[in-house]
Design a protein that fits this description.
273 residues, alpha+beta
Length: 273
């Protein structure tokens, strides 16, 4: 082979190398999973149970794989800036040709990060053998592109805010009801306490009256048994002994026999007949 021919072959080889080097968004063939290191599992039209973990302008296999591995997720996937993590591989029936994953990764444009309606899936190295998702789950996922997933997340983020704003008037409207209930409870407690106090004082007064009446009856009975006078209406009791009254003694002695005479012997008296 002449020198000219050798030069031509060398130039063609350099041209082919430059062409290969300049090509971007190339999906690597599926590789054998290795523990502790992320490997490409293939290009899939479903995500299995994976959900968006983060968005990064430098997204690539070197970003998404370690991100999911640190969180203990055995499966990861990329689509442009979106990084997905999950616990199950997409169903094998949703595996498509590698050529469909042709979107250059933002962080490393030589690699492919998914394509139109497809995702580049990785085994993150958490475990070598990973279970597959059911076909029904994956088929429902295939109808959702990463763009629509992003928009649905935005809607989901906005939904709680709008729901909270919708509930504000309801919460404010319920405040008067709570105040009314509290006032009703307080009034009820006060009313019950007043009724209880009234019953207590009534029973106490009735008991005192009964005790006074019983005391009055006992005093009257004692006065009657002792031979004295019944108690006055004032409630006092005056029992006087008649023998202690000198006037009474004097009246009782009027007309009686003299105490200084001896009537045990007969007294003979002489009278003129």
């Amino acid at each position: 082979m002449s020198l000219r021919q050798l030069t031509t072959v060398a130039m063609l080889a350099l041209a082919s190398i430059s062409t290969v080097t300049a090509k971007k968004g190339v999906e690597l063939p599926a590789q054998q999973a290795v523990t502790g290191s992320d490997t490409v599992a293939g290009c899939y039209s479903s995500l299995g149970d994976m959900t968006v973990d983060s968005y990064n302008e430098y997204n690539a296999q070197g970003y998404c794989g370690p991100t999911c591995r640190k969180k203990g997720k055995p499966v990861g996937a990329t689509y442009l800036k979106a990084c997905y993590c999950g616990t199950k591989m997409p169903n094998e029936k949703t595996l498509v040709a590698d050529s469909r994953c042709n979107e250059p990764c933002p962080g490393y444009d030589i690699q492919a990060c998914g394509g139109l309606g497809v995702w580049t899936v990785y085994n993150t190295g958490v475990q070598v053998n990973v279970a597959e998702a059911d076909l029904d789950t994956t088929s429902s996922t295939t109808t959702t592109t990463p763009t629509s997933t992003s928009s649905s997340q935005t809607s989901a983020t906005e939904t709680p805010t709008s729901a909270a704003e919708t509930q504000k008037p309801t919460d404010e409207g319920s405040k008067p009801s709570v105040v009314g209930i509290a006032v009703g409870v307080v009034v009820g407690v006060i009313a019950i306490s007043a009724i209880a106090a009234g019953v207590f004082f009534y029973m106490r007064r009735k008991r005192n009256s009964e005790l006074e009446e019983e005391h009055r009856r006992n005093a009257a009975v004692n006065a009657f048994i002792s031979g004295g006078k019944p108690p006055r209406s004032s409630g006092g009791m005056s029992i006087a002994d008649s023998r202690m009254d000198p006037i009474m003694n004097r009246r009782m002695s009027d007309g009686s026999i003299a105490d200084n005479q001896d009537y045990s012997r007969r007294i003979l008296r002489v009278t003129n007949a």
